[in-house]
Design brief:
This protein has 75 residues and is mainly alpha-helical. 36% of the residues lie in helices and 0% in strands.
Length: 75
Amino acid sequence: LLVPFNGLHRFLPAIFTHAGLRLSEIDVNHRPRQAGASKYTNWERALRGIYDLIGVCWLLKRKVLFPRIEAGKPE
């Protein structure tokens, strides 16, 4: 169970890989901004990312591992 928080999307690939899942990538088409300006600076993005990374590390360290139960064939 993932606890939703702002910025979780940044860490989903790492969380899924940590859980043993495989990922694939799809190429996308990036286009330059045609109007306006970004509301974030690189410094603000870095601070937010570091703060979120600390939270993700905290979540992963406290992961509860449940024992696997094999289901038998129905009779």
